[in-house]
Amino acid sequence: MNTISLLAATGQDSLMQTPETQREIFEFVLDDTLLTLSFVSNIALAGLTILFIVAMARGVTDPRAKLIIVATMLISVVSISSYTGLMSGLTLSFVEMPTGHPLAGDEVLTMWGRYLTWAFSTPFILIVLGMIAGSNLTKITTTVAMTIAMCVTGLAAALTTSSYLMRWWWFVLSTSFFLVIVYVIMVDWSRESERTGTADLFNTLKILTVVGWFGYPVLWALGVEGFALLEVWMTSWGYSVLDIITKYIVTVLIVLYAVNEPDTITADADYGSTLRGVGVPADD
């Protein structure tokens, strides 16, 4: 009887150490104040950003400016949904690290919901950046496809448990897609923004975006999913701060520019823009 009780107690301790159910993971998050704050802060900021956009965009009439603003708002719509998933434990899991990993054999909290955030929000960032630069639909579509591939292979790197080497191979693939996106932003779109007259704004946006985005693979490598030099809450806060810079700060700058409906974003012939000499359609 004592042996059975001991086994039961050991099993209970193991369960508490490695939560398995969604409720247990949710309680695990709540017990870690710093981890919780990294999620809650972004939920609050995403909500405030949405309200800011709605308030600022009420007087916008040009259809292309509206498209830019709506695409920008969807960045925060995705973020508030995704961070709620993380906070609730819905998009968190404990994954056992493979042989060769510094935490081999241990089950580590993996925030795979962040990859969903990036897979759905990053395309909107690229759509907006491409439109502000005055790029064409082909280049914008290409960067969107590349960013989805980047996020999916990044998710594979985080969830692969069969081999430590394979985790890093997925990471290399993800990084290669990322570098293609960086090239388009830094070279092609920078050149096009000079032609369309949006270089001042675009240069600010590209610096915030590209520099911030380089932080994500660095955090992955240093965090528990890579070399395990950072604790989970440190990695989470790192991602959250980068999200604040590359999403909400960038969003505010874009909206403040677009609501003035400058000619540089309303006179192009693509994406439902207002052409010179053509009246603006009345609102419904």
TrEMBL record:
InterPro entries found in the cross-reference section: Arc/bac/fun_rhodopsins
Is the Transmembrane helix keyword given for this protein?
Answer: yes
Q: Name one GO molecular function term.
A: photoreceptor activity
Q: Name one Pfam family in it.
A: Bac_rhodopsin
Gene3D superfamilies according to UniProt: Rhodopsin 7-helix transmembrane proteins (1.20.1070.10)
Indicate the principal place this protein occupies in or around the cell: membrane
Per the record, membrane topology reads: Multi-pass membrane protein
Intracellular or extracellular location(s): Membrane
One GO cellular component term, please give it.
membrane
Key words of the record: Chromophore, Membrane, Photoreceptor protein, Receptor, Retinal protein, Sensory transduction, Transmembrane, Transmembrane helix
Mark the transmembrane ranges: 34-55, 67-95, 115-133, 140-162, 168-186, 207-230, 236-259
GO BP annotation list:
phototransduction
* Similarity remark: Belongs to the archaeal/bacterial/fungal opsin family.
Q: What is this protein called?
A: Capsular biosynthesis protein CpsH
Q: Which organism is it from?
A: Natronolimnobius baerhuensis
